[in-house]
Amino acid sequence: MQRTHYVKDAISAIGKTVTVAGWAHEVRDIGKVRFIQLRDKTGIVQVFAKKDDTPPFVFEAMVQPKETVLAITGIVKESKIAKSGIEIIPAEIKVLGSLSAKVPFELTGKVPAELDVRLDHRYVDLRREEIYSIFRIKSVAANAFRQSLISQGFEEIHPTSLVAAATEGGAELFEVKYFEKQAYLAQSPQLYKQLAVVGGMDKVFMTSPVFRAEKHNTLTHLNEVVQMDAEMGFCSDEDALLVLEKTFLDILGEVSKNCKHELEVVGSKLVVPKKIVRHSYSELVTTLNDAGVKMKWGEDFDREKEAKLQEILGEEAYFITRWPTAIRAFYSMPLDEDPKICRAYDLVYRGLEISSGAQRIHIPEMLIKQLEARGENSDNFKFYIDAFRVGAPPHAGWSIGIERLVMKMCNLSNIREAALFPRDRHRLTP
C-alpha cells in the first residue's frame, strides 16, 4: 500500500513516522515556510516544512499545484494551530499523480460551481467532503437494508435487467436490440422476485437498477435508479408492511449511528421514530379537502399535495394504505369486500414517497382481468401468468428507491445529487 494511515488515523500516531496519501487541497509558500493541506476521504491534515530544517529536495517538493496526488512520509506532531490538532513534518514527498489539465472548479468551496458543471466532472466533485458524505451515507443505508433483511430470514437474489415485455404495463420503456429480438431494459424487478417466491424461495430481496423512459424534468425523478426490493410468500399486505417498517427504521438507525459526522457535514439530523403511523388513502383525501386542497377520490398525490400533507400531519414518516385499484400496478390485490380498493401501500418520508408495495394477485384469471382492464395484451405476460397456474402462494412485497431515500436523509433539493452518475432525459455522460 502507498499509505500507512488515513488522515483521521494519523491523529493517534503522534511521535511516529507515517505515510499519508491524497490530494493537495491547499498549498501555501511564504518564503522559508511552506504548507500543504493534504486531503483524503477521511479528512485534511497539515504538512509543515521550514527551509532550514527540511532536506532541500523535500522543501522544493512542497510547492505543487492544487489537486496533485501526493504520498507524504513524515513525523506526526501536535499542533495548536492546525484544525486537526496535528501536523506532519515531511521527510519524503512523492508525486503519484500530476496535473495535465485544469481542475474544472474550486474544491475548497470558496467559489461555488453549478450542478451541471459538477456532474460533468463528478470524479472531481466527489473529492469535496459534503459530496463524499452523501455517498458514504448511501453506502451505509444500502448495507443496513441488506443486513436488516438477512436478519429477518430473507435471501438475496439477482434478477435480470433485460425483459421481453413491460414489467409494470405502459409504454415508457427503453428498447434494446437483443440479437434478432426486441428487448427492453426492466422498469422493475417485480415479476422476477415474485417468480422466485413462487419457486419456493419464500423470502427474497435484491438491490437492482431499473430504467424508466419517462420524459420528465423534475427534481425527484431519474431515468435510471436503484431499487431496494423485498418479496415474501405466504403472507398478506400487513405482514409485508411490518417488514418494511422494521427495515426502514433499521436503515435510519444505522445511518444515524454510523454517519454522525457525514450527517453534520450535509446539515441533516435524523430522528428514528419507534413506529410509523398509517393513514388510508381515503382518509388523506378527506384531510386535504378539509384543508381547502381540492382532490377527487381516485387521483394520485402530486408534489403539492404531498407537501401539504407533510405540513398538516407533521410526521417525518407515514404509510398510505388502501389505494384505489385503478391507479396502482395491475398485480395489486383488490379487497374482497370492495374491489375498487386494493392492498397497496406507500411509505412517505419527509414529504416524499420513497417506497411502494402491495399484496400481489396470485390468481391467474384475476391477473388476466386486471391486465385487460388496463388495455394490456395478456399474451405478452404469458410466462408470468403461467407461473401462477402451478401453485402460487399469497405473497406481498415492496421497493425502496435508494436515491429518494438518500435525498431526504441528506436534505438535498435535487435527486441528481444522490446518484453517483445520474441519468436523466439529457445526461448520458460521464
Termini separation:
29 Å
Shape annotation: elongated
Averaged pLDDT: 95
Poorly predicted sequence stretches spanning 5 or more consecutive residues: none
- Kindly estimate the percentage of residues that lie in beta strands according to DSSP: 25-35%
The CATH architecture of the largest domain can be named as: 2-Layer Sandwich
Largest sheet: 8 strands, mixed
Number of helical elements? 13
Percent in helix: 25-40%
- Assembly context of the chains: single chain
Radius of gyration: 26 Å
At the fold tier of CATH, the topology name of the largest domain is: BirA Bifunctional Protein, domain 2
Number of strands: 16
User: Which sequence of strands runs across the widest sheet?
Assistant: 6-10-11-16-15-14-13-12
Could you state the order of secondary-structure elements as H and E?
HEEEHEEHHHEEEEHEEHHEHHEEEHHEH
Task: Please identify the structural class as seen in this structure.
Answer: alpha+beta
CATH level 1 name of the largest domain:
Alpha Beta
> How many structural units, i.e. domains?
2
Description:
The chain is an alpha+beta fold and 430 residues long. The chain is built from 13 helices and 16 strands. The chain has two domains: 91 residues, Nucleic acid-binding proteins (OB fold (Dihydrolipoamide Acetyltransferase, E2P)); 296 residues, Bira Bifunctional Protein, Domain 2 (BirA Bifunctional Protein, domain 2, 2-Layer Sandwich). The strands form three sheets. The chain has an eight-stranded mixed sheet. A five-stranded mixed beta barrel has the order 1-2-3-5-4. A hairpin with a 7-residue loop joins strand 4 and strand 5. The longest helix is centred in the N-terminal third of the chain and has 23 residues.
